[in-house]
Amino acid sequence: MIPICVQCGTGGNPCRCKVVGPTLGLVAFAAAAVVEWPVGALVYIFKHAKGRRIMGHPATHVYPKVTRSIPI
Predict the structure, then answer these.
(1) Which UniProt keywords apply (predicted)?
(2) Measured between alpha carbons, how far is residue 21 from residues 27, 36, 56 in Å?
(3) What tens digit of pLDDT does each residue of 15-40 get?
(4) How many other C-beta atoms can be found within 10 angstroms of the C-beta atom of residue 22?
(5) How far is residue 41's CA from residue 15's CA, in Å, rounded to a whole number?
């Protein structure tokens, strides 16, 4: 089952709801997290700040950019 995300109240399109962007953003977030969280955990052992940045990258960069790039 594929999760479907809905974001209403946006001004990016006439119907003021987004479905495709947030759903693809969630898929991209999960794919990036599978790779980046273990790498971030290993880096965290030696450099705490860098490890936190790597583990936070899917939430702070990947999900918002994919969600904003698709207006529907």
Answers:
(1) Membrane, Transmembrane, Transmembrane helix
(2) 10, 22, 20
(3) 777 888 888 888 999 999 999 999 99
(4) 20
(5) 41
What HEC string does the chain produce? CCCCCCEECCCCCCCCEECHHHHHHHHHHHHHHHHHHHHHHHHHHHCHHHHHHHHHHHHHHHHHHHHHHCCC
> Quick check: 13 and 71 in contact, CB under 8 A?
yes
Return the amino acid letter for 29.
Answer: F
Q: What residue has token string 């479905």? A: 19
Q: Which two tokens stand for residue 28?
A: 């991209």
Confidence of residue 52 (pLDDT cuts 50, 70, 90): very high
Identity of the residue numbered 47: K
